[in-house]
Amino acid sequence: MEAKLRPDALPLPTIRRYPVYLRAVRARRERGEANVSSAALAAELGLDPVLVRKDLAMSGVAGKPRVGHSSAALEAALEAALGWDNVSDAALVGAGSLGRALLGYRGFREQGLSIAVAFDGDPALDGLEIRGVRVRPMKDLVRLVRRLSLRLGILTVPEEAAQACADLLVAAGVRGIWNFAPVQLDVPPGVVVQNMDLAQSLAVLSHAIR
To answer: Among the four 53, 115, 135, 174, which has the fewest Cβ within 10 Å?
Structure first.
């Protein structure tokens, strides 16, 4: 039996490449390709073949010489390594323009994410349904997040509100926060924060095209 690595045993750069591999493998399987080789993936994605071979080996799916990996098995293994094989429910805090855009993104379900409830401090949004998700007042956050046993929070609030909202999510039992606010959050040990700083990404892109 093939040994399966714990998700926390994977190097962070490998985890970041896995979604890219997964999209390519899924597309090949949907085209009817039963097998895929690391060399073919490397050529398609413009990556080092040795790097791709090592990354795929960490998935626990063994490849065969001149055959490659089973597309179905590799897709399932990559999904499991990313934690995308089971849908995780999340709470979104901030139903403004960015929050609404995330609520309307259909690709989350393919990546194992479903936004179960949204919260906002604007009384005018209380009870509003956006893409099938009802917006609740902030006073209900801790109670509802606990009742739904949600472990993931998504912050799309202004910078000045981010820490207070993060504190509420932590108090409700959330273990991971996807933070779109341009601020470093102060959270206790055991809570993971993934920052999505749009300004940093734009700075890198702007510098590159100069």
So the answer is: 53
